[in-house]
Amino acid sequence: MSDYDGILASPTGLPAAQIFLNAGGRTGGTIMWFWVILIQFFTGCAAMLADTRMAYAFARDDALPFSGIWCKVNAYTRTPINAVWLVVFFSSCLNLIGIGSTQTVVAIFNITAPALDLSYIAVIIAHLVYEHRVKFVEGPYTLGALGKPINAVAICWVSFISVVLFFPTARPVTAANMNYAVAVAGFIALFSLSWWWIGARKKYTGPRTKDILQVVDTENSEDGSYSPDFR
Length: 231
Hints:
The chain is mainly alpha-helical. It contains 8 helices and 2 strands, in the order αααβαααααβ. It has a two-stranded antiparallel ribbon. Helix 2 runs antiparallel to helix 4 (81-100), helix 4 (81-100) packs across helix 5 (102-110) and helix 5 (102-110) crosses helix 8 (181-203). It is globular, with a radius of gyration of 23 Å. 10% of the residues are buried.
């Protein structure tokens, strides 16, 4: 990797692909790049699987708009097909954004790291705030007296690094190199809080998993699906 400028100006439009082509030639580089694409495909499938589980769980708990649609489980496949197609649709839309505007899709993808980190400390903060009002059943392994200090360190670190991840990567900051992930985060927060106050707070009571371990008899609906009632 001596010709950095040539790699960045690759006619393929993909500097990473150009590195493989330089290392293995046209045939070898293409084969290596095929495995990269294949890994990305299976990674996307795994991510969509996790997203589908979350979409179904939130819909089951009445935490999403039109939850009654997304929580339906197909009577034949016994899977939440509506939730699957919801995730497929949104995932496709996100990738289509990249065709029209690279800057926009990069801003969306840049929110993933701080959003994931903040989701971790949200649980920690909730536990610290409500530990005297909600009974907490400890598992077989706990941190004991070190729990609170470690939780405090985790909250401070994640709060700090999340702010850093929203910073632009270059100076001076211009409209072209601005990190718009903070704008995406603001939109997500505004939408989520708005939906919570409009409807979710009146219906969402937490995970409705009490009956999951029991066999629940349900009647098939006209469209070949049923909506499990975990209330």
